[in-house]
Amino acid sequence: MESWEAGPTAYAGPASPVRPGRTELGALAASGASASLWLDVLDATIRTCQEHGRTDLVSWLWQRRAQLLHPHLRVLVVGAAKQGKSQLINALINAPVCVVGEDRGTTVPTVVRHTEAPTAQLIVRAAPDTGWTPDAARQDSIPLALDRLADALTETVAVQPAATVERLYADVGVPRALLASGLQLIDTPPLPGLPAVAPAAVGRLRELATDGRADLVVFVCEAGRELSDAEVDVLADLARLFPSLVVAYTKTDYAAHWRRDLEASRMRLVQAGVPATVVPLSATLRARAVQTGDAALNGESGFPALISLLEATVAAKPDRLARATVGVLGRTVTERLAVTLRDDLDAQRAESETSHAVKRLHETQRRMDELRKCATRWQTRLSDEVGDLMSDIEHDLRERTRAVIARADETFTEADPARVWDEFEQWLREALLEVAQTSLGWLGDRAEWLARAVAAEFPADLGDVLPNWVPGVQGDASDRVTELESPPVERFTMTQKLFTGLRGSYGGVLMVGLVTSLTGMSLINPISLSGGAVFGGKSIREEGKSLLRRRQAVARATVRQHVDEIYVGLAKDAKDSVRRIQRALRDHFTAVTEDLQEAIIESLRSAKADAEREAAVRDGRARRTEQELIRLAGLQKQALGLLAGPG
């Protein structure tokens, strides 16, 4: 029992190279206003969290509120493995209360507090989130041997079920004047990942700070190196929860250039915006000073400066430390709440472009624009196609009637109209009827194709806009194709043949008779009569051929005139039909366009009304969100005012 109470609780040695500032712990000892101000700000912050439905923050802030009102100052000592955390606590109170050694270390948190008589026990908490405080609910309590505390703690933890290890912590009480003022020291297991990586350490450190109900964090780093990037990140995260931190630079007795590394680490913390007091320490020098009673050596160990800092912080807790802590908590909490509100505000702005009503409005406007373009397209298409159709039908009729005329010319080149007219006229009428029916039937097919072509200019999502019927071809082909009367032709009568033969034979008799008269024969003799007969027959034949050619020419001219008349009539009927088809399709598609336009306009009105209603609701939410952000800004300003101090 002597070893627990032997040795001084503190030495008044020379000042350690600590540089107090507004954000450092030395500044927290200054006097400030009464507790009512920071308590009002904290309660307002808790109410705001309740209004925002953040029960997690409410629970956490209530816990911090209770801890700030508690007279004890709980100091969480953290760091990576083999950095000297446990040695720091042992040297600080001059008692081997924490497990140290090369082959073993801290496996469960150890709370060191003041008691009138030494005591030690291993506590099994009722739940993993129960705090490490004497008044917290506990499931079991296992006494530990005081004369071999480190070994007893290690052995007892080793035999506990694995499922209960996370609920274990050691509670050690020692009679020390340093602790009697309300200081409680908490040794913690090594932070995972450090000094290399930070994420796991950050999460674990937040759990330790919550479970330990910590008011202050001492981060331990051995001398001989600078703080790593991961350690700076961990300290930056802690600075969001605590107004100031202590970085204990341990084992300075064996690091030759520890001052250089300490200054470099202090500069890194300043650059990172981390309010921390850096304290160089040597537990070995402290132990040696205790054994020899050497005050100078004790001052060189750095522990007097740390003790003074802790005592000042204990004294500052009810006022200045509480103010600064509430300032940090208020700033952190309002920032978290503001992030949620800003995200909600951004989501509302994004929703203004992606909401169903706005999408429907945009889609309706797009359909209206598409319908306007469609109206221009189908009208242009109808006009172009009708022009092409008229040209094509006229050309088709012309080509077909020309073929009939060519066939008629071919017929009357050889045949005698007087003999074949009846048979030819029947063929001509049938050929013209076929031309009319074929051409006008093709016109009907083109009309259906025209209707589909114009309907294709409408958007596919409008459905089927084809008319149920297409106007037929006007006029009856049989009425247009009339019977062709035989043209008047000259007939070669017997009288005409007789006179033509006499006229031709007279010349023959005269010429032959003159020739035969040279032989002494009379002018009219058998030979001259024979010549006259030959010449007369020739004249009859030539006159007959001439009359035939005249009849054929008259027949061809008559047929051409007849076919042209029929062509003109059929062309007129075709053009009239095309015009009627054009008007019918124009009226139909105009009605379709008007119906669609009315439907879209009605949908546009409805979509616009829905969008305006949604916009009004959204604007109201946005205004409320912005007002809440302004309120949070005011609350944060009050919190920052606590950080700035009185005046």
Key traits:
9-stranded mixed sheet; 9% strand; alpha/beta; 647 residues; 63% helix
What would you note in describing this structure?
- By secondary structure, this protein is α/β, with parallel strands linked by helices.
- The protein contains 17 helices and 9 strands.
- The protein has a domain at 360-488 and 552-637.
- It has helices at residues 2-5, 35-51, 55-69, 85-93, 149-158, 177-180, 199-211, 229-238, 258-271, 283-292, 295-301, 303-354, 356-414, 417-455, 477-480, 494-517, 526-644, and strands at 73-79, 110-114, 119-125, 138-143, 168-174, 183-187, 216-222, 245-250, 276-280.
- The chain has a 9-stranded mixed beta sheet, with helices on both faces.
- The relative contact order is 0.10.
In short:
This protein is of the alpha/beta class and 647 residues long.
Write the layout of secondary structure elements.
Layout: H1 2-5, H2 35-51, H3 55-69, E1 73-79, H4 85-93, E2 110-114, E3 119-125, E4 138-143, H5 149-158, E5 168-174, H6 177-180, E6 183-187, H7 199-211, E7 216-222, H8 229-238, E8 245-250, H9 258-271, E9 276-280, H10 283-292, H11 295-301, H12 303-354, H13 356-414, H14 417-455, H15 477-480, H16 494-517, H17 526-644
Parallel strand pairs: 1-6, 1-7, 2-5, 7-8, 8-9
Antiparallel strand pairs: 2-6, 3-4, 3-5
Protein name: Isoniazid inducible gene protein IniA
Domain Dynamin N-terminal: 75-237
InterPro entries: Dynamin_N, P-loop_NTPase, TRAFAC_Dynamin-like_GTPase
